[in-house]
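From the shared-data thread, chain only:
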Amino acid sequence: MVNAVITVQVGSQVSGTIAKLNADFNSRVKKGDVVALIDPQLFEGALKQAAADLENARANVLVAEANVVKARATLVQTKADYERAQTMAKESVGTQQALDLALAGYESAKASVDAAAANVTQAIAQVSQKDAAVAVARTSLEYTVIRSPIDGIVVARNVDVGQTVAASLQAPTIFTIAQDLTKMLVYAKVDESDVGRIRMLQPVTFKVDAFPKDVFKGAVSQVRMNPTTVQNVVTYDVVVEFQNPDLKLFPGMTAYVTIPVATAEDVIKVPNAALRYKPPTSPEVVRALYAKYGIDAGVQPDAAPAASATRAAASAPAEMRRSARGEDAVIWKRLADDTLEPVRISLGITDHTYTEVIRILTGKLEPGDDVVTSSISSKALPPGAQGIRR
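Structure, as tokens:
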């Protein structure tokens, strides 16, 4: 699948009704642009209420400080009364009861001063709390203005004007913005049997349904080690980078990826069906033909070397291509007189339709020669008999 390199989902941190949308599908936006606006009336009211609570808390600080002054004045008065009662008690003018009452009033005044000072501290703390509430309300109001976090193109718009978004449980997505569609990625699922042959910066070609005649090129940028298992089939994600300067390809397109792991140029190739073909005759007749054309009699005429050769060649990386020489096969070439000649060849790499001929071991094979892939016969062919090629 084709994807942008960086895709950002723009959501809302507050709940409310969408009042305005400044962007739509395919809109180009810059970082910081206002792309949507949530109705701010409730948040403006909450901010005003929080600001009023803050002013009230500040007024309470003034009241508490005035109470401290009052309590200290009372303390001075009660202290003087207590000292006067002590003097009168020493001179036997006042009673013990009056002294006790003066002492109690003095102690109570001292406690009132401490309580008033504590009330000042509490009022100051309330101011800090209400100030924080104002900051939260102001931030929530700012969140009603939704801005683009990056430069890019809007690839999805998920809301309309008047729609209510609820951010209490999960932040709703309002826009999806792709940062740069001139540089994109393809996420290819590669089977576990093939992923070991993929290397970084390996060239890749792919096609999309929208442009079936065009071949796009890229390079492997990452082979992710996280496996995906679907119905016991294990695949790995291979990330392919490619340039999209004309914005021809869109995010979400299905890509059909080809990652060549080996190449061969200017070689003879034969169809894989020819590697599987066996003449409809007895093994003795085939051995006689082998002997006639100098093929080793140890080669089993009823063997099917094509399957193992194809598997070995397909799994060989480019630098190991020549190791496929150990896989041999016998193909049947149609001569000018419609007789068949066996040719023993050494196999190279394959694209599962054609296989490279590395070397001709026995016989002759030239580009353009006819090789038999299947035949129709009413009875077994005698040595040198004609076959109908299909």
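Residues 41-90 form the longest helix (50 residues).
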